[in-house]
Write a structure and sequence with these properties.
The protein is an alpha+beta fold. The chain is built from 14 helices and 17 strands. The protein has an eight-stranded antiparallel beta sheet with strand order 14-13-10-11-12-15-17-16, sandwiched between helices. Strands 3-2-1-4-5 form a five-stranded parallel beta sheet, with helices on both faces.
Length: 416
Amino acid sequence: MKELKSNIIVVGFNIRPLAYSLSRAGYKVYAVDFFGDLDLAPYIEDSLIITEELQSNYEEIKDNYKKFLAKFTLNLLERYPDVNYILIGSGLDDALEERKMIENKIKQNSSITSLNNDINTIENSRNIFKVYEYLELEKFSYPLTKRLDQVDTTIGPFPFPFPLVLKKTTSSGGTNVFKINNKRELSLKMGIVHKQGEEKEWLLQEYIKGNPVSCTLISNGMDSKIITVNQQIIGMKKLNPPREFIYCGNTVPLDLSKEVIQLIIKISHHLAKLLRLKGINGFDFVVRGHQAYLMEINPRIPGSIRASEEALGMNLLQLHVKSFYPKNWNEIVNNLLKVNSKKKVYCTKLIFFAPKTISRDSIEQINKIQEVHDKSDPTRNITKGEPVCTILYQDTSFSGSQSGALKIVDKINTLI
């Protein structure tokens, strides 16, 4: 097919997994990436790497990278005006102004197709109050949520009991999300928020204790099909995440009761149609008992995508591209249906964060491990809290997949 011989610009915080699959599907990939991991290079034709271009590191620019992602995307579009597609991964979820800059640039070149949701769809998907209104109409579950500037925290009673969650409206991947156990902790956090004048940017939310789950779905704006339902791995201490709610990986697929799986599927289909989502998107839930509470929507390809691909034995990025062409929908559905007849395979993805400063020699040794991906460049030490690598481990059982991945973590710890 024509699109299998096309050129594509891929933009994101970590686009190595996307570039890997697109390259294997026959695309020539041009990258705008934050890290520039060693194993990105074999799958791209050219790149602009933020840390390299700015001669900086993760800690120095991690809070300001969005504007640089947009700026370097415009630069790459100037350099390669004949590309056929542009795909934006993680990193610009709530950066609407930066997305508009990119979209306006694309409009100047009618030959470029955007493989992304439109800005209105993204804005609606990330507006948690609008999403919860949709859920309320169908009597689906969600955590009670209030805007911080609409709650008087100096008097009681609170809208919901402690512990509760304080989170930024633009949180992604577990950043800017805090569990608050009592009024004293809330007062301390509130002082910081007030000092920065950001009350309107924060939410208070009911804390739902349960099992973190995600759903990966593909759609064409009207129809949708579930790809996988996944175990989310959040804040696993063994992986040294810098904060409690940081995304640390997935195990795919997740074996849940049929009742809960069907509920998750029903909610995801319902929202995908209402929001007119296109391509592959992610939905995050917390499952408690027989209820699935929607936490947020990621209107772009989720971080679990490579684990889903390994579990299914399928190139999902190829399906993502095809989903933007209506004539391909039946083919996409048929390809996913064929997977159900195969022997079940499980894949665990873990993100290992540095528990301390890791030397260049240790990084070189870590990079030699077969199951390690997103390999850090050993030209500098890695500081505490930075992501070091991703681990992917397959097995024929859920527990075997997780335990196998954790053994790789143990191996890494012996090297540092």
